[in-house]
C-alpha cells in the first residue's frame, strides 16, 4: 500500500483526502465561515479515524501550492511541511489550477480553470485534456477576464470560482460552454491533488522540503504598497501578507 494524505486550501473551500495509490479512501470538504486553521487538524484526525488508518501507514503527502488565497496557501503549506519534517515523509506540491482542471476528467479538448483573485483579476491557465491526461498549455498567470478571453483562441470549457463569478460574460463569449456554477466543480479538491501527486510518487519523485513554497504569482498588498522594501530579504515568500 502507498497511502497519500492530500490537502487543498487555496480557496475558501478547503478539503482533505486519503488515497491508496489512485483509490480514494476518505474525503472531507469544508466551506467558508470558519478559517482553515480551525478545521484542518480536526479534519485530518477525522479522516484517519474514519478510515481506520494509523498515521504510520501514510507514505506521502500532497499539497495544493496555488495560486489562490495567500493565507490559505500558507496554512496548508505549514501544516504539510510540519508533518513531513516530523514524520520524514515525502511531499509533492500540486498546482491548484491543475487540480481544478482535473474536476473534468472526461472532457476532451481545452480546459481553462479560473480561480477568482479578486481586485478584478483571475488566476488562470490552459490545459489540453485527453483520456483523463492533462497537458498544460503556457504558464499560469493572473489577468483581467478581458485579457484571458483574448488569449483563448480555441473552443474551451471554463470552470472554477472565476468562471462562476464572470459566468454571463464568459457564456456570451464562449457560446454557453461554461462550467463552475456547481460547488464541487468550482474549487480545487484534495482528491485531485492526491491523484496528480500519485503520478509523481509512482515515478519516485517528490519535492525538496527546503524549497517547496506556495505559488502566489502576484505580489502581496504589502509589496505593492511599499515597493522600497526588499521583501525577499525581510522574510521571503512564506512571510508575505495576505492580499485577500
Q: Can you tell me the CATH architecture of the largest domain?
A: 2-Layer Sandwich
Our Rg estimate from Cα atoms comes to 18 Å
Secondary structure tally: strands: 9
Order of helices and strands: EEEHEHEHEEEHEHHHHH
With helices defined by DSSP (H or I, 4 residues minimum), what is the helix count?
9
Average pLDDT works out at 86
What count of structural domains?
Answer: 2
CATH class of the largest domain: Alpha Beta
Describe this structure in words.
The chain is α/β, with parallel strands linked by helices. It folds into 2 domains: 3-96 and 188-239, ATPase, nucleotide binding domain (Nucleotidyltransferase, domain 5, 2-Layer Sandwich); 105-185, Nucleotidyltransferase, domain 5 (2-Layer Sandwich), CATH 3.30.420.40. The protein has helices spanning 36-50, 70-87, 96-101, 145-151, 161-165, 167-174, 190-202, 221-225, 231-234; strands at 3-8, 14-20, 23-30, 58-64, 91-94, 109-118, 121-130, 133-143, 156-159. The strands form 2 sheets. Strands 3-2-1-4-5 form a 5-stranded mixed sheet, sandwiched between helices. The chain is globular and about 50 Å long. The N and C termini lie far apart (40 Å). Residues 222-244 have low confidence and may be disordered.
Amino acid at each position: 500500500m502507498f497511502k497519500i494524505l492530500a490537502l487543498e486550501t487555496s480557496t475558501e473551500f478547503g478539503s482533505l483526502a486519503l488515497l491508496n495509490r489512485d483509490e480514494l479512501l476518505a474525503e472531507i470538504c469544508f466551506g467558508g465561515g470558519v478559517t482553515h486553521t480551525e478545521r484542518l487538524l480536526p479534519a485530518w484526525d477525522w479522516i484517519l479515524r474514519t478510515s481506520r488508518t494509523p498515521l504510520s501507514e501514510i507514505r506521502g503527502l500532497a499539497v495544493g501550492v496555488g495560486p489562490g488565497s495567500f493565507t490559505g496557501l500558507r496554512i496548508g503549506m505549514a501544516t504539510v511541511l510540519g508533518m513531513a519534517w516530523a514524520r520524514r515523509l515525502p511531499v509533492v506540491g500540486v498546482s491548484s489550477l491543475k487540480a481544478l482542471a482535473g474536476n473534468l476528467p472526461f472532457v476532451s479538448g481545452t480546459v481553462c480553470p479560473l480561480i477568482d483573485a479578486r481586485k478584478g483579476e483571475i488566476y488562470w491557465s490552459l490545459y489540453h485534456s485527453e483520456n483523463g491526461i492533462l497537458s498544460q498549455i503556457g504558464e499560469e498567470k493572473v489577468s483581467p477576464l478581458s485579457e484571458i478571453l483574448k488569449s483563448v483562441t480555441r473552443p474551451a470549457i471554463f470552470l472554477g470560482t472565476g468562471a462562476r463569478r464572470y459566468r454571463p460574460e464568459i457564456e456570451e463569449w464562449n457560446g454557453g460552454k461554461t462550467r463552475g456554477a456547481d460547488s464541487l466543480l468550482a474549487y480545487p479538491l484534495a482528491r485531485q491533488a492526491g491523484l496528480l501527486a500519485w503520478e509523481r510518487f509512482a515515478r519516485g519523485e517528490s519535492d525538496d522540503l527546503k524549497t517547496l513554497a506556495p505559488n502566489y504569482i502576484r505580489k502581496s498588498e504589502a509589496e505593492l504598497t511599499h515597493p522600497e522594501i526588499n521583501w525577499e530579504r525581510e522574510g521571503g515568500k512564506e512571510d508575505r501578507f495576505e492580499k485577500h
